[in-house]
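Q: I'm writing up a methods section and want to include an example of the input and output format. Could you take the sequence below and give the corresponding predicted structure tokens, formatted cleanly so I can copy it straight into the document?
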Amino acid sequence: MVELSENKEEIVFTPVALDEFFEDEQYAQKIDEYNTNIIILTPKERKLVNMVFDRLRTTAPEALENLAARISDLERLTATIARFPSLMQRQVIAGQEVRTQESLIHALLDFRNGDRMLHLPTKAILGKGFLVAKFHTFVAISKTARNQHFPRVELEQLRSATLAIMFTIMAEDVYLSLLEDTTISLDIREQIATSLIILWEHRSDQTVADIAPVLEAVWLARDKIVPAFGTMVGTSELLRLTIELDEQWTSFIKDRLEDPDVSKALEEFLFGLSFEQINLLKEKIKEQKYLSISRDDVYALLGEHTPVDIEFDPRNFYLRYTIRRDNARARTRMNKEGPHKTLEDHFVKFILERNKEKQHKDAYAR
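A: Here is the clean output for your methods example:
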């Protein structure tokens, strides 16, 4: 809730429990042992928002008022979404059980082809809208902080928080993609389905929270690399990318790079081109015996304009991911050559399988 006095410098952001928005107590109750509220701000996000608000109170009270209104809008939105049936509880209509968490898991595992939208629970659809609204709120907060010349360390913290929200949006796509992969063991796919339901319920995910710093480092490192298009092999790019990153990423590369789908997905990620474009360039380089080729030459050969580099914008990261995602889905559907999963799909799968293996080892050690 945002409290405003007649003096704008007295604007205060006060966190409010969702149940204060409900007139009827039944909507605010915890049923069974589950808390079905969407998490508006994580503790880390709330700390960042309060830091920004404290700074703006004296330097830019009007900007503070606008941002505080956005946070209040998020609270009202979550209050509305909370009125829809929880995905963690048994749903009964006219005395007949129509859905349980277990039946939803089975439905997610069984669904194969086509668009799932009309088969998904209402709360799952509305919750994604909440995450998009939250993402735009943090973009606005970050822009305001830059305009007010916040210290670089604080701007980087806001960037990380914004990217983490974007990764949470992306996680839904990744989970749905992995659910369709029957080469993944059933127990892992059941775990993915459960994680997806929890993500839909709370719009927060522990797996994403754990791997977000790695994905952020990978994406930012990739953004600093200027691809050497000479041989289109990507060895130097991979080396430069791996040097900057942590054990999780290097373990993933060592363990999975021999998988053709992983290596092709990595090529797409490194070069910022589709598998089909990469193959076309390789053929043209071989035919015309290029010893070196510039970025402008690459896009001229592809018959496209050279992309213009612009300042950091997390939406551009997500846009590039969705292009690779959609291409992978199309190849899978038409059984075409090329990566059928994105690099992000493969990385999340690796982390989930490694965590499962660690759980088994820990259980055996007891």
